[in-house]
Amino acid sequence: MTSEPLLVADQLTKSFGPTTALERASVQIMAGEVVAVMGPSGSGKSTLLHCLAGIVAPDSGQVRYQGRDIGAMSDTARSALRRGEFGFVFQFGQLVPELTCLENVALPLRLNRLGRRAAERRAAEWLARLEVSEVAGKRPGEISGGQGQRVAVARALVTAPKVIFADEPTGALDSLNGERVMRLLTDAARQTGAAVVLVTHEARVAAYSDREVVVRDGRTRGMELAA
Amino acid sequence: MSDLLLGARMAFSGGRDGWARAVLTAFGVGIGVALLLLAAAVPATLQARQARGDARYDFRLGEQLPAAANTLLVSTFDTEFRDRPVRGRILRPEGPQAPLPPGVAALPRAGEVVVSPALKKLLDSPDRDLFAPRLGHPEVIGTIGPQGLAGPHELAFYLGSDTLTIDGSHRTDVFGGGPPGEEFGPTLILLVVIIFVVLLLPIAVFLGAAVRFGGEPRERRLAALRLVGADRRMTHRIAAGEAMVGALLGIVVGGLLFAIGRQLVPLVTLWNISVYADDVRPSPPIVALIVVAVPVTAVVVSLIALRRVAIEPLGVTRRAASTRRRLWWRLIPPVIGLVLLAPLVNGVSAVGAVYTRYQVAAGAVLLLIGAVTLLPWLIDLLVRRLGGGPVAWQLAIRRLQLDSATSARLVSGIAVAVAGTIGLQMLFAGVQRQYTTETGEDTTRATSHVQLFNIPDGSAAIRQLLAVPGVTGGTGTLWAGIVRDGSSPDQASAGFLRIGDCPALAEYAELDRCVDGDVFRSLGPPDGGPSVDAFGPGTQVAVGERETPWTLPADTRTVPARASPIGWQRSEILATPGAIEAGRIGPLSVDTYLDFDRDDADTLERLRNTAAQLSRSSWVGTLSGTTQADRLTTIQRGLYIGIVVTLLLIGVSMLVGLLEQLRERRRLLAMLVAVGTRRATLAWSVFWQTVVPVLIGLTVAVGFGLALGSVLLRMVNMPISVSWPVIGMSTGLAAAAVLLVTGLGLPALWRLMRPAGLRTE
Description:
The complex is a heterodimer of chains A (227) and B (761). Chain A is an alpha/beta fold and 227 residues long. Chain A is 34% helix and 26% strand. Chain A has a single domain (7-221), classed as Rossmann fold. Helices cover 50% and strands 15% of the residues of chain B. Chain B contains 19 helices and 21 strands. The radius of gyration of chain B is 34 Å and the shape is elongated. Classes of the chains: A alpha/beta (227), B alpha+beta (761). The A-B interface holds A 16, 41-42, 46-47, 50, 53, 55-56, 76, 79-84, 86-88, 90, 93-94, 96-99, 103, 107-108, 110-111, 116, 139 and B 388, 390-391, 394-395, 398-399, 401-403, 667-668, 671-678, 681, 755-756, 758-761.
């Protein structure tokens, strides 16, 4: 782990209409660490994750990735960053229903212009690592929720990202499947050296992290950015 | 009933999403309803136009009326302006009770004119100098009201006169009572029947598609109701209630769209036809039928759609997702259609019979429905075999493989319209030969023919016409009737004398040699007018109205007649100016053939002005190789208008369908963007997803169109021929509509692709 933070959120404020989702929230993520962002429903956890990933622009404050201000990047550059450096796992609705699981996992590689065969070969490897090889040819609608989340984790990891953003990745799973997904996700991340930003409200899930950041009423606690 | 009401409430539940879904459904159904109302209004609209045309009819058949206090002399002064017909009448009242034409408050006096609002606009525009001179710059004293016009954009005028006489005019004491219209022959009836089928079937197909908007969320809601205890029958009743409310709302929206469209109708002129808003009135029984049939259709379609899914408490599964579509029943409609049309293949002489009309309509409908039933099967079959390609292509093809029915529904409307258009165009191409007559006009020899009657100084008139700016050349002759001296003007002793220089006379006869002073007897075919047998050399004749005596010179030569540029070939005496002094004959008529650039529309208008100033009873026409029967032209125009309107509205419906699809997938789109998917990739995926079914649909449409066209051509005993440019145009027009829809859908796609769409709280 280097001393320079990989990803920094500094004094982020974000409102949706009259609702303030984030208020001067700050956090920093070091390379390779697993950080759990915790808090009750509506506290601003997901908004913080979306801001960190460059999905949503904050009203004020700054997000820096490897020292570069994400807010100053063009939309194209941000998309390229998400495609190449970041991986995502969401709670639901993340797999493209019309593609097979293998094609879903290969999708980020193909978006990065990798040929179909090479992309699908690498996707198959990741499906095997996530122990879901048997669903490669099936569509998301034909597999279980736990299998779907493991496919989603494979998809998030297939590009060897520097940061994985996971928003309630086990929210729709039973405890057994949840445990399995979290173990596979954190193990794979540690093996590849990827940092994980894990949004959850479950202490059981947060236990897989190296440290926790609590968000309440849009403010972060537990790990304020050092001046 | 409580289930139905619950369904009705659910149509609007779900906050903004629920409302958006309801609005999309209502709009989709509304477009269909508006189109149906428009179609239902066509007969009344045509009837109203016809009624107003009859009301201003000014010609009285039978014995001529004597002049009286209630009579009016009317002379036809129709003209054209930039290819738009101008209806003109010169009026001279013969007493204080002379009748007023409909829509006219007071008869114009000499130097006054009453004009239609459209002509008033023209006279107030910079183009006035290209039209006003032919009326003699009269004072406009009023405008013609709607009851005296065929449509709001019709160019028409009533010009006052104090010099009009019964010669060259007719007398009337009442306006109204038009002549019986030109009858539609069996072939034309066939055309009209098929046109209605072609225009209305896509609308029905789209209504079926529109009532399914929001199907997926509806099924999810029904699953949630199953979870809390609703049984299958209850869910069906709830679905029926929801569909019915969407359809009823659609009827209201359709009524509103129709009312708005009706107000906009007067702003549009297509092929010189304009219509008043008040004329567009759908017949009440058809309105009642629409109001009942649309909700019933919506309910039936929804219930049929639900048969393909199993709604269980924990979610929805599609029963037919993995089973292939069956072909056999999809072939039934086109086969029955062909069976119905087959007996008529050797001719439809009895098509006027009601039974045959229904047989043709049913056959054509079933054949075209075949395109609708076969299309989903074909799209399914072909899309299953596609694969590979870049990400955008893969996303589109996989989406189609998962659910091609939605695309097929949206495309089938276009396919039917195109198939019908191709079939009709083939029939038109064949029938055109039957109804198009060769004019015999030779467009290589002249651009325009100007005819003036009984002009005091014809030679000066010819010079004036040749001097009109833009005219590059031409010839002119003077002509009058002749009678052999001392004879009564019967067939044997009456004829025509034409005076002109040698080049001008060469347009009427094969002159081997000609010098000024020569006279010729031009011999035409037996049906080429009065014979010149009675006019041998040395014959004394009386020329023109003043019966000016003249003797044919002894060296008069006989020459064969030549068809003039307008195709007339007749026997007459031709004289050069050196042989007869035209100035002493009195009023003569004038024929001029003029050359100018056909694309220079202003020259033609200036010619019309000059001709009208020289003689009110002038004729100015451009030469054309062929002419079509008016009825055929009207039907063809009707088809073009209908197809353009149908394609436009289908395009709008497709756009609504596309927006609905995008809206349902907005979370997925947002997720794809969140993981870094390029916008262009998603745009291309939407493009391919639209284009692939459309290409398959158009291929099917061409096949069915050719089949329909071939059958129709055989029915009117025409050889089968294919006009590929027409097919290219029809498919191109449809393809353009699809591209336009995709283009218009892109802004919504950009909006829905915002990563912020991931936010759920």
